[in-house]
Amino acid sequence: MIKIEETRYLAFNGTNSINGCVTAYRTYLEFVSTDSNTSHRVEYCQVVKFKIQKYFNTVAIEFICRNLANFLIFLSSDSAVERLIGVLEARTVVTNRFCFPAYVSPLTYNSYFDRTYGWNIYDKQQEFYRMCGMDESHLRVSIVNLKYEVCSTYPDIVFVPKNAKDATVIASAAFRSRGRFPALSYYYNVTNTCLIRCAQPLSGFTNKCAKDVSLLKHFWSMKEPHKKLHIFDARPKINAMANVVKGKGYEDLRVYNFCCFDFLDIPNIHVIRESFEKFLVSVRTKHLSVSSMFKSIMSTNWPKYICLIIEASFTICSKLHHEAVNCLIHCSDGWDRTSQLCALSSLILDPFYRTLHGFVILIEKDFVSFGHPFCLRNGLLSGNSKDTSPIFVQFLECVFQLQQKYPSEFQFNERFLLHLAHYFFSCQFGTFLVDCERERISMEVSENTDSIWNYIFSRTHDYLNLFYQPHSESFVHTNFKIHNYKIWRNLYCYKIPELYDCFTLDTYAFQVQEQVNRNLRCKSKKIPPSASHWTPVTHVHTCYSCSANLNAPFEPISHCYNCAKIFCKICLIDCNDMKCCNTCAKINSITESLQNIGIDDTT
């Protein structure tokens, strides 16, 4: 442990620095304020890079973090800078996925489930039967990839047309990038259509594969002959054409004459990464006017790409719902843009995936089971940043945007999405540590780490949307345009007081409902009404009792029923079915005792 006194902490683009000291522990760095009872902690695995900055006569270390919470530490001497730099150089270089807190399970939470619950929450066959209902005559379970030999990044069991032989599947895999052959992602039982996923074909200029054509023909033959199989290539056409030179490319409609084809023009991971970096700088920069801020943010193209992905998902859903045709999605390797589009399309079509449990199943199905390079995109082990890209966070933001437009359609709230983004960055759970199912098994991730789903389902009440109204229909008839876009302030700006508002709509709804319930209990039990003037939640940043920081977007807060002050959840206790602070609970207890012996405390 190394402790450095007389330092100052400044959040990225913050207004005021905080005096305190920095302590370097084995797995994390912690800044503790000397002026107030607040602290700021960052795990070494969160630090992407750090660099020395000079401000007049002061030296600071700038931290660029995976969780987007960048900050500066000002140091009082050159020796302090050398000591801290030495620690950072030794501990921020990651060579082992299990060197993070996930391995030793430092998080303490009351899990109501067996430790294996989260790892086994997704049952492929059970979900297949749920999707198909009674109509499973055209599809079958295939164990061709049981040992992950056909495709190392696919699940062990997949669902393919009943008439397609395993030999056809194996030959098709040899003709697809990374062996990612066409397989069922989602079955839409309203129109009995299939959403299929795969990677780009290795067609080059003249290559053909009769077995690959045959496999897609089996999917096409599940519908009427006049309804062609619709192939959506997520890439811009120029990118797909460039891959032809590399021996890859896209389907030739002269060979796949039973198909029709569309490019969705979604950029690759490199363009998305650059856009995201510019967006973070723009959204955290102080602008002279609203118009200049708007122009700066729009120039990054991040809102444009979010809208592009959502609109593409609606286009796919329209084909499945209105035209009742089978659709196939692929990009280059079929596990970035393809995962986003398959998951979002399923979310729009199926209300089950808009429940808390269903959304967990959706992530397990389209990202975890079918493979997504979480480790590579997060840059955990790679010294080269060219393969990093915020693909999973971009998917979560797409869901957030849909949540904002359709607030009653989702059982889960924004805090749930924020938690997923936070733990994806922090690597504290094993769920997002590996890139595919095979790696999870070979590295014994379930034995060495905890699943995030155990943590999520041990505190379900924190993630429920009180505006939720269950529906049995999709909202495929609507669309999403650029004017619907909203900056996800609670994710990107929560360290900036001028922009951050951690109290979301569902938080206000929770407090309103809580007040209604209290009033009802008052009438039934003749309890005196609570304080009439409640402290606004937007004006308070620390717990009234322990001064704990309340600016983190992940933890709920509440009022005391009696005094109406704001407290953290640790400082509130249940008192006659109401939340009260310790002081008010003692007063209530004394008052109740006096009333029991016939003494009126108001006299």
From TrEMBL:
SUPFAM superfamilies: (Phosphotyrosine protein) phosphatases II, FYVE/PHD zinc finger
Myotubularin phosphatase domain: residues covered: 118-492
Active site (UniProt): 331
Superkingdom: Eukaryota
Annotated substrate binding sites: 243-246, 268-269, 331-337
Keyword rRNA-binding carried by entry: no
Record-stated family: Belongs to the protein-tyrosine phosphatase family. Non-receptor class myotubularin subfamily.
Name the record gives this protein: Myotubularin-related protein 6
Upper lineage: Eukaryota, Metazoa, Cnidaria, Myxozoa, Myxosporea
